[in-house]
Amino acid sequence: MKKTIILFLILAVATSCATEPKFRITGTIDGGENATVILQKRIPGGYEVIDSTVLVNGAFEMTGVIDYPQMVILAIKDKRGGLNFYIENSDIAINGHADSLYLASVTGSKTQAEFDTYKAAFDESNNEMSKVYDRYREARMAGSDLLASEIEKEFEALDAMQTELKKEFINNNPASYVTPVVLNELSYSLEAADMEALLGKLDTSLNKVQIVVSMNERLVQLKAVSVGQKAPDFTLNDVDGNPVSLYSKLGGNTKLLLVDFWAAWCGPCRQENPNVVKVWKEYNKKGFDVFGVSLDRNKEDWVKAIEDDQLTWTHVSDLKYWDCAPAKQYAVNSIPANFLLDGEGVIVGHNLRGEALAAKVKELLDSK
Question: pLDDT digit string (tens) for 206-217?
Fold first, then answer.
């Protein structure tokens, strides 16, 4: 009897192991010869290798277990770029060429198929945006600022339409493993309240997804620098190497201070600079000032951009690019970005640009 029970347990364990969900990726990559294929995923601060193997006659196979469907990257060692796709515990087939791996076909992943359908919904508007951008660039190169401004409004309208489509997808697919990626795309332009509302729509089964974990951590940062909060103080060196604190620029004649995150290498920042200069010239004597925080890496480029764009206010930087400490403190992950502070250091506006900045400054100074 005991032998029968032991045998039954052994068979049960063996059956359980045999039926455990796992992924099996088989593929062919032309032009790779004996190259090493690497399967990896993004993690905070870098990448984590899931598996790797060597191509044999252009073919490879990988097996393993994944906790949940997630975006991964298939790359060839010593080659730039790679294929982004959704992996899940199923049989997945990949076929492509080593020189254009990002175009490889992926079959067998239901989540990838769902993601492909989602992306296809934007094909028409993406093509239209590309045409509008070409017109915008031509107008800029021709010096037609008025025309460029009108074309820019067309681009913004298309972008707003895509944003609404993404929000609709999130609302309609709260448990989809594609949804965290869609929400992450939006998160860079969302205020804390909007981001919290959209995160609240996600099914609790997605709480384990790393992107969701990261977005919840970012939400905490966003809340700390949202409108109505006291701006965190920080100190960085100016162009002469002298330490200057944010709070040292508050008070006195300064009734409003724009903390402006930018960089010499940032095209959109350079395009926005003339707007900031215009507002500064019009309202500086009435109590408006700017505190420029650069995400540059090269001091010469930084100083030259200040001079070229005639940015006559105080500028600071640690020249650490995206590792800029205040940028992290203020949850800045795209530039230009700005925070408008009142004389007490309370945030009264966020990411105000062009006419919106001028209107807000006028409104607040007129009320004082």
Answer: 999 999 999 999
